[in-house]
Design a protein that fits this description.
The protein is mostly beta strands and 59 residues long. It contains one helix and two strands. The protein has one helix at residues 2-5, and strands at 21-25, 38-42.
Length: 59
């Protein structure tokens, strides 16, 4: 876990208000083409989701 936390991420340059957006997925892993649920709570009237594949864990 320590090695993973040391990896570079996306910098948050303008943080929003505390708890302005929270969410989780209903699966921790999916294969290409598989679906998953995304549960989001936000104070925003609308939002956009953008997903990326992370290949660090592929075998």
């Amino acid at each position: 876990m320590r090695a993973e936390n040391a990896l570079p991420g996306w910098p948050v340059t303008t943080p929003g208000p505390t708890r302005a957006v929270e969410g989780f997925a209903d699966r921790v892993s999916v294969l290409p083409g598989e679906s998953f649920g995304l549960y989001v709570s936000t104070t925003a009237p609308r939002f956009t989701v953008f997903g990326l594949g992370d290949q660090r864990y592929s075998h």
